Amino acid sequence: MSHKNTNSLGQRLSRWLALQVLISFALVSLAVYLVIANYLTSRQFDGLREKQDLIEHLMAESRQNPDMDHLRHQLNDFLEGHPELQVVVQYQNGPIIYEGVDTFAGDPDVKEVIFQVPAFNGGSQPVQVTLSMNRHADDELLRWLTIALTIASLLATMAVARGVYWRVNRELKSVDELVEQIDQLTAYTLESRLDGSSLPTELQPLVLQFNDMLERLSNSYKQLENFNADVAHELNTPLTNLITSSELSLRTMREGLVDGAIVGSNLEELHRMSEIIRSMMFLSKAERGSQARCESVISIAKIALEVIDYHEALLSESELDVVVKGDADGKFDIPLLKRGLSNLLGNASEHATPKSAINVTITPLKDGFVSVSVSNHGQSIDPEELPRIFNRFYRSDASRSLSDQHHGLGLSIVAAIARMHGGHHFARSNNGLTCIGFTLARNRQAYTQCAE
Fold first, then answer.
1. Which residues contact 15 (CB under 8 A, 6 or more apart)?
2. Which of 50, 85, 244, 442 has the smallest set of CB atoms within 10 Å of its CB?
3. SS3 assignment, position 321
4. Which tens digit of pLDDT belongs to each residue from 149-169?
5. Closest by alpha carbon to 171, among 9, 409, 337?
6. Quick one: which H or E segment has residue 434?
7. How far apart (Å, rounded) are the C-alpha atoms in residues 314 and 312?
8. 369: helix, coil or strand?
9. pTM score, two decimals?
10. How far, in Å, are 177, 193, 199 from residue 208 at the CA level?
11. Chain segment 10-49, per-residue pLDDT in tens
């Protein structure tokens, strides 16, 4: 997989760092230029002051020896070897006494200083001296310095951009390797995990999170496979019974006999299959985010007593007593609440020790929730199996023998009802006491949408 595109990380970092380097070099170059320009200006000023002192000294000597030819000769010697200098000596508002050779050729890039010296050669009129310096050499130096700094800045910027681009692409090779690992993942290789040891430290958490997601996907896929197997198992048994009984019924019909027991058995199997399908449809709706209705419930305990009356026959057969403890009100979906309580009570009555008591406990909780649980005395659930009892079609091996009576969706429906009411399910089992229940939000309209 290539990262060389207009939106690649390498190009974006390269452009950003190149801009930073260019700005940094531009500021440094500007500082260097200003320092050197200031130095040259200061040197020009000092040079003119030094030459002014020397000319004043020559003019002072000329007053003691008023020989104009000697003065011109000294000034010529002064200008010898200094083509950047020009000297003009004249009476103030009068004729020119001395003018050096004009080497500036009209160059405007000139710096000059004008000063006066006392009269000499017996005159009374002061003498004015104009000392000029051509700055062309220094300006040429600054021009070449500007060119050199500009080229250096551009070359450095290009070098940094290219280096960063190369380095980032090299570092991204480990990401390419990670992408290749991801490309090799399939539904049959979800057990494998990504190796991010070669990735930078900043990307390690991403690999860990991705591996955690793979773990969840693997578990979900296993559950899906187990679900498919359980569905096949649950539907295979009644279908086999229906086929067998139907074949027997056909034989009896040929013999002129009609067996009502066979028809009744077939009807029971069909009802069982219908119940499985309805439960699966309910769970499917719950998984897709179906909301529970909000109906005012004055007493959850009253609803629990109605459910207990429905299970009276089964409870009496096992000589089980049911005690309701606590109460709470709120807004719930009454049919779903009854169904959840019925599933919990039915599960408890099947596994409770005969002649023992089953407790239905209703406890208001903080933050506007209520807990509804059913506990019974009996064989404790293995801690390893406890988290899985809410899975669809989950039954322990010991309960497989009762598969003709129970299809293993009861507690899954309890968990779905809890989620639809903004709560969660829970289960505890130790020392022969098992407690299974769920929590419900007492007023879901305060923070979520209820189905009307």
1. 161
2. 50
3. strand
4. 889 888 888 888 888 888 777
5. 9
6. strand 433-441
7. 6
8. strand
9. 0.50
10. 16, 9, 12
11. 777 778 888 888 888 888 888 988 998 888 888 888 888 8
